[in-house]
Amino acid sequence: MNGVKTGKTIVNGQCLNGTEVNGKVAHDTKLYVSVNGSLYPAKAKSRRQRWEVKPSEMANNTLNPIRAIVDGMKLTPNQDKPMISLSIGDPTVFGNLPTDDAVLQAMKDAIDSQKFNGYAPSVGYLKSRQAVANFYSCPEAPLEAEDVILTSGCSQAIDLAISVLCNPGDNILVPCPGFSLYKTLAVSMGIQVKLYNLLPEKSWEINLQHMESLIDERTSCLIVTNPSNPCGSVFSKEHLLKILKVASRHCVPILADEIYNNMVFPGSHCPSIASLSSDVPILSCGGLAKRWLVPGWRMGWILIHDRNEIFGSEIRQGLVKLSQRILGACTIVQGALESILNNTPQSFYNNTICFLKCNSEICFNELSTVPGLCPIMPSGAMYLMVSTKTVGIDMDHFPDFKNDVDFTERLVTEQSVFCLPASAFEYPNFFRIVVTVPEEMMVEACGRIREFCQRHYRPSSRDSNDLDQ
Predict the structure, then answer these.
(1) pLDDT digits 0-9 by tens, 173-184
(2) What is the structure's pLDDT at 13?
């Protein structure tokens, strides 16, 4: 064979495999043993001298910014005042926002049927996927069962969407301020996160010019959160169309986080971004957690809107393969899903929206007159961001504090009110308020925040001059 032949050298009863090239034998490191005249690869003899078990790079690279900040805070409430937590995006905490009886009955029926105790397909039961497709399908963005992947909560939907679209070394565009999980997931996978700015003075619309400037050849996905956590903003149809134009111009697919879909206050309208897209492919992530007030049930989904078959079979197959890592979402909730979607009365949704809007107005009106603070009225979701008119909490007016983390920490110490510092969303000198608490608790919390700010507020020299004039 052109001067190349294999050879075997026996050393101490073992055989080294070699390849002879032009009369010379080059041995590799693989050892062989002779058994009854036949040669078999020998097991490498390696033994660790001591225990050394280390976490993986993915584990080391996984960091939740909220936990990193909150766990480092010294949260010692004032013993004379009961604690009011306005920090957790869980509408069930205070028991004032129960889910509807029809939702509970659907779960009871699913359990009693005993049809949903086994494994389901990793992407979910076909009937359950069809129910989600029917619920969200519209003429502008039609859906079939094959376009739906059921997941363990919206968080897993986001995880799968990022995982299927991105490779290590790619980058994704993420809103700032924005939900911290995007960065947590991406960085753990070796994906770079590029933050595009939202504009508080424009009700948190995207700074489109800044967003577009971040796109390069390694940008694999644009994340759009609408309605927004942490801002409570709702993008108009016109703004969504402008976002789509940028994505289309640069051929970047969109990951739409729409977990707060339809949780929009009267006077605002929130079409799904997929219903407006003519060419941009979109993975829309949603779930039961917020609108149906059952975050612990861990039921989410990905809706595949494949404009012009750009995703094709590969992205779909990729999502199927990734879903097989944990063998799918809870089967009991899947069994109840069709009934939940079809039988929850509209009055339940309306009452939830009415409560959230009322609480938001209370918070906005109360804090609007607090020295040094300027709340930004939300249009949906469950949150309200607080800032000054331009740059956030003006620390010149609050010289007792170094930053928003210090500010919110002391608010707990003195007033037993916990708001989440917006540094957790990489947006310093703001803080986020969750508006799901009972109304009387919201009024009490705002009163305590007012008292706290009045105690620590210091007018600037410019303010003093204005008063003198």
Answers:
(1) 999 999 999 999
(2) 47
CB atoms near residue 45 (< 10 Å) = 6
pTM given for the model: 0.87
Checking if the pLDDT of 29 tops 90, the result is no
Name 379's Cβ contacts closer than 8 Å, sequence gap at least 6. 203, 227, 232, 233, 234, 264, 265, 267, 268
Taking CA atoms, 118 is separated from 23, 104, 131, 329, 334, in Å, by 64, 21, 20, 12, 12
Of 339, 288, 406, nearest to 102 (Cα)?
A: 339
**Per the structure block, which two tokens stand in for 275?**
């219903």
Long-range contacts of 397-403 (CB under 8 A, 24+ apart): 397/371, 397/372, 397/457, 397/458, 397/459, 397/460, 398/372, 398/453, 398/456, 398/457, 398/458, 399/458, 400/456, 401/456, 403/428, 403/429
Residue with tokens 């967003």: 211
Q: Give 15 or 98, the one with higher predicted confidence.
A: 98
Q: Where are the domains of the chain?
A: 4-41, 60-95+347-463, 101-343
Pairing of strands 282-287, 300-305: antiparallel
Pairing mode of beta strands 4-11, 14-21: antiparallel
* Residue with more model confidence, 304 or 393: 304
Question: CA 450, CA 453: separation in Å to the nearest integer?
Answer: 5
Look-up: residue for tokens 């490498």? 44
Q: How far apart are CA 158 and CA 331, in angstroms?
A: 20
What tokens were used for 375?
């709340």
Q: Are 449 and 415 in contact (CB under 8 A)?
A: yes
Write phi, then psi, for 207 (nearest 5 degrees): -75, 90
- Kindly report whether the peptide bond that precedes residue 168 is cis, defined as omega within 30 degrees of 0: no
Decide: 275 and 284 in contact? Cβ < 8 Å.
no
**What's the CATH architecture for 101-343?**
3-Layer(aba) Sandwich (3.40)
Q: What is the C-alpha end-to-end distance of the chain, expressed in Å?
A: 100
Q: Please state which of the four CATH numbers 3.90.1150.10, 3.30.300.30, 3.50.50.60, 2.40.70.10 is assigned to the domain occupying 60-95+347-463.
A: 3.90.1150.10
β-sheet with 148-151: strand ranges across: 148-151, 300-305, 282-287, 254-257, 219-225, 171-176, 192-199, 205-206
